[in-house]
Amino acid sequence: MSCDSRHRSDHCLIDKETAILSLIRKRDESGLLQLIELYGTRVKGLCLRILSDTLEAESVASDVFLEIWNRPDCYIQSRGSLRTYIMTIARSRSIDRVRSFSARAKNHEKFCQTSSAGFSLIMHTPPADLLDNERSTQITQAVEELPPNQQKALRLAFFSGMSHRQVADELGMPLGTVKTHIRKGLLRLRATLAQRFEIGDAT
Amino acid sequence: MNCERIQDSLVQFLLEELPHSEFTAVKEHLETGCCVCNEQVRELREGMGMLFEAAPKEDLSPEFVHRVMKLASGDHVQLVVSTPAHSAPKVTGAKLFGIGIASMAAGLAAAALGFWLLDNPHGPQLSRSLDSDRQRDNLLADSPRATGDQGVSSRATALGDFLPQSAVPSDASSQFISARTSTPASNLRANIVVDLYAKQVHFFASGFTPPTPGHDYVLWFSDGQTSQPICNLEIDHQGACKAVSSIPSDQVDGFFVTLEPEGPWAPNPQGQQQLSFEDL
């Protein structure tokens, strides 16, 4: 896949998100259905990563989509993509659920078992989703190029459902240092990927 | 706060992890239009979006889409109560939080009561948790209190996984109405068994979140005219509770059992959550 087509897919995605939101605001259930088709597996994947329980993950995922359905105006397009918004909600609701059921210890144990295998974020990807797969691979590679401390901090904060304070405790670092690692990691990741996509467009 | 401190907290701000006072301070700063900080918010959001794209994927269960769509459509399953002779059953939907039971033509002396949960045209939900119920239904259907009730299907006496057998009244002449209900967009499930002979309500529920110790609920009874709290429900550390209480009225025609998160707020419960019936 060329970077050109990848760039076009970004615009297509934004258009698609806009169309979906428009349907949802009109209370057209086909919008919700399309939203689930677009992000359902990703939302469940993130929830499962944090909750370590399939049933709980689907329960939280359904809450996430119903939240969008019931309160679409909470999303403000100028503040970022719908994808980021949904995933942020999924992360927050999963953390709430973990706290509710005191499942953090179990999750942490599972994380420790899997983390030794390296930064393998992609656990399962439907074969038909090849374009998305390649994009995810690119992003995973960009994450792997980050300094180790930034990688660890990002992984714990975004895929293990830990707060900044918990990440600091886990890594044995001051909170301020963890904040810096996470912020700089995100900015660097964004800069790296933006540069790659722009280079692709130029070629 | 200056820009440096603001920027230091931006990720936590975006993840809604900041204490209220700090969250407000960052929000107000951004609303002043600070170009540098707002630009960094934009870049951090983009970075988060990219990172989330690398999140793992997991296939959804076949029931997931159906369940979400059903909850979104507010397609509540309705409850019907009728006499064994099937005389003109009345229909009511789930109202408020709890169980709304339609007018019963027969009184307490009626030989039996039957009810059906109207089938949802889309088929059964939460089938995984219901399988064991069905097995238990069959046992109950063979019991003296269930046999002979022409209007009682095996599904009509469904009791949940969490219903302890010891809590089921053993008197074979007792008459029961039971129903399962669950909240949209939550994990809350409840079974309500009404023993018309003993005039008791048995209430079993699970999935309360968060199961904060000391955060009790109040169970209300309403005959449609007045409401009164009948007992407190203590949520255990697993988010479940059970209670047995007398029905405080001879009037059981069209009553509601209502659960109030905080209270009691006499004369009527407040803060109820809406439940919908899931088809069995």
Summarize the helices and strands and which ones pair or pack.
The complex is a heterodimer of chains A (203) and B (280).
Chain A: H1 3-25, H2 29-51, H3 54-70, H4 82-101, H5 104-115, H6 130-144, H7 148-159, H8 164-171, H9 175-202
Helix pairs in contact in A: 1-2, 1-9, 2-3, 2-4, 3-4, 6-9, 7-8, 7-9, 8-9
Chain B: H1 3-8, H2 10-14, H3 20-31, H4 35-53, H5 62-73, E1 79-82, E2 90-92, E3 99-100, E4 114-117, H6 127-141, E5 176-182, E6 189-195, E7 200-206, E8 217-222, E9 227-233, E10 241-246, E11 256-260
Antiparallel strand pairs in B: 1-2, 1-4, 3-11, 5-6, 6-7, 7-10, 8-9, 8-11
Task: Describe what this molecule looks like in 3D.
Chain A is built from nine helices and no strands. Chain A is mainly alpha-helical. The longest helix of chain A is centred in the C-terminal third of the chain and has 28 residues, at 175-202. The relative contact order of chain A is 0.11. Chain B is elongated and about 70 Å long. Chain B has 280 residues and is an alpha+beta fold. The interface between A and B is large, with 73 and 50 residues.
State the main characteristics.
heterodimer; A: 203 residues; 9 helices; disordered C terminus; B: 280 residues; alpha+beta; four-stranded antiparallel beta sheet; 11 strands
* Total of helices of chain B: 6
Largest interface: A-B, 73 and 50 residues
Q: What is the subunit organization of this protein?
A: heterodimer
Number of strands of chain B: 11
Total number of strands of chain A: 0
| Residues in β-strands, percent of chain B | 15-25%
Order of helices and strands of chain B: HHHHHEEEEHEEEEEEE
Strand order of the largest sheet of chain B: 3-11-8-9
